């Protein structure tokens, strides 16, 4: 690993100031569970690492600090009661050890697990070294995206992101040029031609907290995933769903999928089909996968995603 200066910030504002304007020469570290692997493999070679872990946690009522650990989120009684999808997504992630160290902010901003991204000997759109190596027929792409893609076919890795989008969460961000609050969904906006970075955060911009507002939609929400190993593994596909039912009629619904596109994938065709009508789980499961364009090695993910949508909506309707 390349030697770097290690700075510890007292709050998010100071950390953001230390990072801004330095590009890849400075990176933030929260729990370090993702960052350290990238430093060790020299995929990131910053001159400065800014440690956030002593920053004031900065969360008020209705907020989750970006420094809350996944274990804390999974165990939080208010989150479990009002945002079950978020608590379940945190509980299903990784291992107990990683959940004790990995934070909300780090989980939302973690880098893709695509093996071509993590191996410098291959070209990679996200690393800025050429075209995506996972897209061509015959590439090792069994864990990759099944929905139309722009320049990258990696699969979004975060458990929390789809769950937070499903319950309508926002993220509060800090930057020397001005703080802002974004819908969690906007954080991953790919723009018209794909985006190299994993989020739309500006250079040096940090997530301070996630803002959660209780609602009937968020209260009736769940998260389901399928992975190859039960012990610990990233999801092959995941579904976070939230449903507001009124006398059997769908008032509102959100279905957000992980592991199937480079960013969390909103199954809008299925949502539109359900809204204002009697809940039809089978039709929603079909609509959710209708636009899938799997790669040479991952057609198996299509029926898995349909089944996860079926399971999530069936659970929410009972
Ligand atoms: C064995 C293993 C299995 C895993 N399985 C899963 C899984 O099933 N599901 C899942 O979702 N994740 C999984 N993970 C990933 C894990 O959840 C993440 O590594 C962890 O959540 C990252 O949090 P961290 O605090 O350690 O982030 P760090 O490693 O410190 O940072 C990760 C990235 O986020 C940036 N960052 C950190 N905090 C902020 C902030 N507040 N604002 C802006 N940027 C920030 C850092 O600069 C860095 O780029 C797994 C990891 C391992 C090692």
What is the third-level CATH name, the topology of the largest domain?
Answer: Uridine Diphospho-n-acetylenolpyruvylglucosamine Reductase, domain 3
- How would you write the strand order of the largest sheet? 4-7-5-6
Q: How would you characterize the largest beta sheet?
A: 4 strands, antiparallel
Question: Any idea what the radius of gyration is?
Answer: 19 Å
Helical percent range?
25-40%
Order of helices and strands: EHEHEEHHHHHHEEEHEEEEHHH
CATH architecture of the largest domain: 2-Layer Sandwich
List the bound ligands. flavin-adenine dinucleotide
Helix count equals 12
The overall number of domains is 2
Using DSSP, what is the number of strands?
11
Give a short synopsis of this structure:
By secondary structure, the chain is α+β, with helices and mostly antiparallel strands. It is built from twelve helices and eleven strands.
List its salient traits.
318 residues; alpha+beta; Uridine Diphospho-n-acetylenolpyruvylglucosamine Reductase, domain 3; Enolase-like, domain 1; 2 domains; 4-stranded antiparallel beta sheet; 29% helix; 18% strand; globular; binds flavin-adenine dinucleotide
What does this structure look like?
With 318 residues, the protein is an alpha+beta fold. It has two domains: 57-211, Uridine Diphospho-n-acetylenolpyruvylglucosamine Reductase, domain 3; 216-317, CO dehydrogenase flavoprotein, C-terminal domain (Enolase-like, domain 1), CATH 3.30.390. The mean pLDDT is 95. α11 (281-289) runs antiparallel to α12. It is globular and about 60 Å long. 47% of the residues are buried. It is built from twelve helices and eleven strands. Helix content is 29%, strand content 18%. Flavin-adenine dinucleotide binds next to β2, α6, α7 and β7.
